[in-house]
Amino acid sequence: MKRALILVLALATVAAASAAAQGRERDGPPGRGMRGPAIAGGALGGMRFYDPGFLLRRQSDLGLTEAQIEQLTRLNTEAVTTREQARIAVVSQRAQLAEALAASDPDIQVARAHFDSAQVAMSNLQWAAISTASQARTVLTEEQRVTVRDLRPERARGRPGRLQRRRR
């Protein structure tokens, strides 16, 4: 029973990690189901909108200067490389975890080590996105930051009065 529970938990973790590590390209900022981890919400609300790739796709809306485009392009290139390295680490550790748990007599300590390594790799992926977004944000002027805030969909901005309606 314990072995079956561990296998189910490991497979759920592998599935969740797989979903987080994979993405699809679109015009919006990175988030769940897109390139890059979801980093919006909480104290980090809206940081995903400062992804350099997103900002570069919106350069005409933001009125970016050539110097800003160069800085954001450099940040984006570094971010793509860092994300890809982190994704490779996540996929590798997930595969090793699944292999360790698929053994006829799995070594739980080995499985735990691969699980922990996969979690660290996913954390590194998220931190890379947060760090890059923070650096990209500093490239923009205050007016451009206001424009970025205006580009955010209503659900990402938080709807004023939403909490008041729930309390009634």
Provide a compact summary of the structure.
By secondary structure, the protein is mainly alpha-helical. It has helices at 2-21, 52-57, 59-62, 66-102, 108-139, 142-151, 154-157, 162-167.
First-to-last CA distance: 46 Å
How many strands, what sense, and barrel or not for the largest sheet? none
The number of helices is 8
What overall form do the CA principal axes indicate? elongated
| H and E order | HHHHHHHH
Question: What Rg do the Cα atoms give?
Answer: 19 Å
**Uncertain ranges:** 20-28, 31-43, 161-168
Structural class: mainly alpha
Helix content: over 70%
Task: Note the topology.
Blueprint: H1 2-21, H2 52-57, H3 59-62, H4 66-102, H5 108-139, H6 142-151, H7 154-157, H8 162-167
How would you characterize this protein structure?
Helix content is 71%, strand content 0%. The chain is mainly α and 168 residues long. The longest helix is centred in the middle third of the chain and has 37 residues, at 66-102. 27% of the residues are buried. The model is unreliable at 20-28, 31-43 and 161-168 (pLDDT under 50).
